[in-house]
Design a protein that fits this description.
Radius of gyration: 21 Å
Structural class: alpha+beta
Bound molecules: zinc ion
Largest sheet: 7 strands, antiparallel
Number of strands: 7
Strand order of the largest sheet: 1-7-6-5-4-3-2
Number of domains: 2
Number of helices: 6
Low-confidence stretches: none
Helix content: 40-55%
């Protein structure tokens, strides 16, 4: 199994044989499971395959991983694979560009604190993001009854069916609210579920309507031809 390193994970670059290569990569160490920055070294170029291999070392546990940078002459279109893959990685949701900047920033912060295993901080950022969504769409933000807000959001965004299924599941799970009030400490599993909930809300509130809108435009421009 291998893993593709995204450009966002690269914290510093250097050059090797005149080509840009990563010098530091942020990831969850597959050996000690900490979220930290790997330092890259021992670069080696393989011209026939247009690739560069290098090693990465964990500053905490000194564990090692191998990286393989392919298509190295074109950095923008290059890809980096690593082995062993990072542990328990949770990728950022797709189409984040459709989400308003402040909300997407809070979401990314929630994800970062999750990767650092600070689950209370994750819960706080999830709550802040959800309240921002509710404020923007419904004009009110304070989370007193999560299921009710989800239902209102579903009515507002006209994606009622699926959203209401989620709000029914939320209504059946009253203890979820206790995590937002810090009456209960969230586990990793709870923090992960709250992140999934936030991603779901962002997808249905911003991403899907934007995609529907662009599809409508695409269809109407077809009709005019
Ligand atoms: Zn490590």
């Amino acid at each position: 199994m291998y893993y593709c390193v995204t450009k966002e994970m690269i914290r510093a670059k250097t050059t090797f044989h005149g080509l840009p290569v990563p010098a530091a990569i942020a990831l969850i160490c597959p050996h000690c499971h900490d979220y930290l920055t790997y330092f890259c070294h021992d670069y080696s170029r393989h011209t026939p395959t247009n690739s560069i291999t290098f090693c990465g070392s964990c500053p905490a546990c000194e564990g090692k991983t191998s990286f393989w940078l392919v298509n190295c002459r074109d950095y923008e279109r290059s890809k980096i694979f690593m082995y062993p893959p990072p542990a328990r990685v949770r990728a950022a949701m797709q189409d984040l560009a459709y989400v308003p900047h402040q909300i997407s920033e809070n979401y990314l912060e929630a994800l970062a604190t999750y990767h650092h295993n600070y689950y209370k901080a994750t819960t706080t950022m999830v709550r802040a993001s959800l309240e921002d969504v509710f404020k923007t769409v419904l004009g009110e933000g304070e989370i007193t009854e999560l299921a009710d807000l989800i239902t209102q959001l579903a009515d507002k965004t006209d994606l009622t069916g699926k959203m209401k299924n989620v709000s029914t599941a939320l209504a059946d799970n009253k203890q979820l609210m206790h995590y937002f009030d810090f009456a209960q400490s969230p586990t990793r599993q709870t923090a992960a579920t709250l992140l999934t909930l936030l991603e779901f809300v962002l997808t249905y509130t911003y991403v899907v309507p934007a995609k529907i809108h662009s599809l409508q435009q695409e269809i109407s421009s077809l009709e005019q031809e």
